[in-house]
């Protein structure tokens, strides 16, 4: 049997063209990674988004400040710069390990990437903007509540309004994180522990709003928090702590083995904080997006199968979403609690005899 070929421009040819294949990994990574805009959805092939400021510095061009909408989602160059997309990198056959989609590069007059053009990107990406918003919310809520307590409201009289919601949480952190781990020294560390707890909690909850950024699912953000905890731990160290590091209470030959282990332990504690928060917060988002993608994967196999399984996957997504709300509180508590545990170990010299308080590690 001979094969019938449709003439160019024939409607049959258009029908034979394959529809773009669904790429679940690309969709998931786009949603959990950083970007130069808040993208909500696409309607009639037109994206609904909020552009963010692009701030670039080039030794040859100087400073450039403009909105990310000038790039038209990577379709256009602007002021000698281009936002790389996966399509552009593939079309120009660029090394995607070097020219990663989502990054801004300098281009020449022909619109091609200029490898020699150095660009320092100081843009306010969606992770940075959302972290700033979270900090502003924290600065708006906590000083206002503190002012009420200074005026006697909640001390001589019953707390009112939002103070009723926050007070039990503050009391819980004070009793279960501060007092239980730090003993008589808890008051000294409560401002730091409360700030860390509420800052992580606010970012976790904001990240559950569709279209927003998953800030706590970004390793750079959790690394910054881990460094702050590391500084707090190091400031709290004393003679007993360093004596335990450099002269561990073990037989002489074992000291040679224990010394590098103890040195590594100094850094593994904040590293554990960093990875724990990052992994737990990004995993929930990936699971939800995976369930949503499964609807379209089954739909591509068979339309009826896609519609038939969609209620099941939607319910699973809602279930995981509700769990994520709980995880938002749990992970904020675990980060603050483990920070308190490590601080207690620092000023106790790695022992548990001080004040008779015993630090208990919480397993997530």
Essential attributes:
364 residues, mainly alpha, 3-stranded antiparallel sheet, 10 helices, 8 strands
Quick one: overall form? globular
Low-confidence runs of at least 5 consecutive residues: 1-9, 11-17, 350-364
Residues in helix, %: 55-70%
How many β-strand stretches? 8
Largest sheet: 3 strands, antiparallel
Ends: how far apart? 64 Å
Q: What is the number of helical segments per DSSP (H or I, 4+ residues)?
A: 10
Give the topology string: H per helix, E per strand: HHEEEEEEHEEHHHHHHH
Based on CA atoms alone, the radius of gyration comes out at 27 Å
Provide the spatial order of strands within the biggest beta sheet. 4-3-8
Please indicate the percent range of residues in DSSP E strands (runs of 2 or more).
5-15%
Mean pLDDT: 83
Helix- and strand-based class?
Answer: mainly alpha
